[in-house]
Write a structure and sequence with these properties.
10 strands, 3 domains, 3-stranded antiparallel β-sheet, alpha+beta, 8 helices
């Protein structure tokens, strides 16, 4: 005995075109059959009346209409014959079943989902996805309900991407959900394309509409972000202050403005750092004596 994988067991359908008749031509034939019936009734021609009536019964049920970006799969006793993508009034044999499928773009905004990101932090995430049917045969025959299939797969894809990256990276060394929208959005589109290929659905565009920490950790993460911002600002401030102090001491030495020993140089550095790095304005003290008083 040999075992088959799910992919081997699935009979993948492929769309093919079928030639339906222009409905306006058949409409003229229908009007002609009506005229023949009237003529046969007037002349009491029984065989002609029966033939015209049969033609009328055969032609009338075969009409259907297709709007732009709409297709109809033609089925004969359960067998798929092809897809008609023409527009306007169309006609086919009345014993053929026509299943209409919209190939227009669909816009779906997923519900807000709670997902654990790469670091295990609970986050809330939602996405907007623009999708459309590209293969009507796959959409109708390879899945039970292609719209419900798309909804479930989009939710699963959003969850997968949300758990694949951290929400934020305070070291700015890796890809994050918050800091790399375009890159993560493109990966989400590729993920959804793979998941929806079974149903003959293509994804044209997708992106996040909601992205935030879950309420239970939002306050703590906000304080962490604020602390990181304060540390980063202090680091930049100290780096700038050290450069200014170094420049001041160098200029004083080059221009021979004042000669300072190590102790007075250290005191000057300390005073300059306090002035440059302090959060409040400093109060100057005027020294009317010497530097050593």
């Amino acid at each position: 005995m040999t075992s088959e994988t799910p992919h081997q067991a699935l009979n993948v359908s492929r769309e093919r075109s079928t030639q339906a008749v222009n409905g306006y031509v058949m409409l003229l034939l229908l009007l002609g059959a009506v005229g023949v019936i009237g003529l046969a009734a007037a002349t009491q021609n029984g065989p002609l009346l029966v033939a015209a009536a049969i033609a009328l019964l055969v032609i009338t049920p075969g009409f259907y209409m297709l709007q732009p970006n709409q297709a109809a799969a033609i089925i004969l006793f359960g067998a798929y014959l092809g897809t008609d993508r023409g527009t306007g009034l169309r006609w086919t044999w009345p014993w053929l079943v026509r299943k209409k499928v919209s190939v227009r773009a669909n816009n779906l905004v997923s519900e807000i989902l709670k997902v654990n990101d790469l670091r295990g932090n609970p986050i809330e995430i939602a996405a907007q996805v623009v999708w459309r049917v590209t293969d009507t045969a796959q959409a109708l025959f390879d899945v039970d309900d292609y719209k419900a299939f798309a909804d479930v797969q989009i939710e699963a894809g959003v969850r997968a991407i949300g758990s694949r990256y951290p929400y934020d990276d305070f070291t700015h060394a890796e890809v994050t959900l918050r800091g790399n929208h375009d890159e993560v959005g493109e990966e989400l589109r590729q993920e959804l394309m793979k998941r929806l290929a079974t149903a003959g659905i293509a994804v044209d565009e997708c992106g996040f509409t909601h992205l935030a920490y879950a309420p239970e950790i939002a306050g703590a993460m906000l304080r962490r972000q604020q602390a990181q911002a304060v540390v980063a600002a202090r680091q930049t401030l100290v780096e700038g202050a050290v450069g200014m102090v170094e420049m001041a001491l160098e200029l004083l030495s080059q221009k021979n403005v004042v000669e300072l020993d190590d102790e007075r140089r250290a005191a000057m550095v300390s005073n300059l750092m306090v002035v440059l790095c302090g959060e409040r304005d400093t109060q100057p003290v005027v020294n009317t004596g010497t530097l050593y008083q």
